[in-house]
Amino acid sequence: MSDYPIYAYRDMLDESFPFKIEIRRPHSMNRSLHAHEHLQLCYLLSGSCLHWAAGRQYVLTKGDLFSIPPFHEHRLDPRDAMDFVMIQVDFMPHAIHDSFRDLAHIQTFVDFAYIRPLISEADLMPKMTLPPPTQSVVENLLNVILTEWEGQEEGYRLAIKAELLKLLVITCRQYKRYSHTQSQQERQKVTHHRNAFYKAINYMVTHYNEDLHLEEVASKALMSPSYFSYMLKLVKGKSYIELLSATRIQASMELLAGTDLNVTEIASRVGYNHVSYFNKTFKKHTGLTPGDYRKHHI
């Protein structure tokens, strides 16, 4: 158990449209260590404050854009009694439906929003400072989103989705430019963590017939179990259990159609210790029992 609260998105966002945008100032910032299930993007509109993330303190100033991924502990603090205005955007990926899945295949976005914030090292800042021209574009977009959110006129959700998607695409492009200014050591650290994630997925789908555990695979990805499962859902469209089951069932379908092995042997070969659970899972995925599937594919 963590020693800080992890806020469920359903407690903070409308489930039918899991999105929210707010303006934070010194009197309304959250100074308690916490985490949440949803993704949070923050932009410092003016002033300066302190941001604590993964046990380290970072100074934020005007034009800084940063991401707080799910389950990542953080909090804000004032900086020498300085004033600040921050725009905070909270949302779940399915708020913009399939468009977010497209973004998840843009590596720069995954690096900025989900990989880089996990690396808790003093020389790798979990933020990027936007150049003045991009600041103006981002501020205009955020202003439109705020206006739509506050007015909530007919079609406001569609308008917010469109503007949010623009904001995320601009973030992708800017991070790509920003990454070219990083030192080789910084790029290597991000690449190492990214590769660990994809190697863990490969390990999972090539060792599906073994007695796999989420904790074991997540450790190979250098992530917590909950975060690894979240990332799988984001990138592959399936949680850990869903992806493992789909991989095992696909392998069993090939064995049913291409071998004379009995169902019990096939269940064991693809990683199921109990044939009854295998039969139940197989029917859930295919709509047929293993025996019926074999009859239709011989």
Task: Tell me briefly what this model is.
The chain is 50% helix and 17% strand.
Describe this structure in words.
The chain is an alpha+beta fold and 298 residues long. The protein has 3 domains: 6-181, Jelly Rolls; 188-241, Homeodomain-like (Arc Repressor Mutant, subunit A, Orthogonal Bundle); 246-296, Arc Repressor Mutant, subunit A (Orthogonal Bundle), CATH 1.10.10. Helices cover 50% and strands 17% of the residues. The chain has 12 helices and 9 strands. A hairpin with a 2-residue loop joins strand 4 and strand 5 (56-61). Helix 3 crosses helix 5, helix 6 runs antiparallel to helix 7 and helix 7 crosses helix 8.
Please name the defining characteristics of this protein:
298 residues; alpha+beta; Jelly Rolls; Arc Repressor Mutant, subunit A; seven-stranded antiparallel beta sheet; two-stranded parallel sheet; 12 helices; 9 strands; 50% helix; elongated; RmlC-like_jellyroll; DNA-binding transcription factor activity; transcription regulation; HTH-like
List the helices and strands and how they pair.
Elements: E1 6-7, H1 9-12, E2 19-24, E3 35-36, E4 39-53, E5 56-61, E6 64-68, E7 74-78, E8 84-91, H2 98-103, H3 107-115, E9 128-129, H4 132-151, H5 156-179, H6 184-206, H7 214-220, H8 225-236, H9 240-258, H10 263-269, H11 275-286, H12 290-296
Parallel strand pairs: 1-3
Antiparallel strand pairs: 2-8, 4-5, 4-6, 4-7, 4-8, 6-9
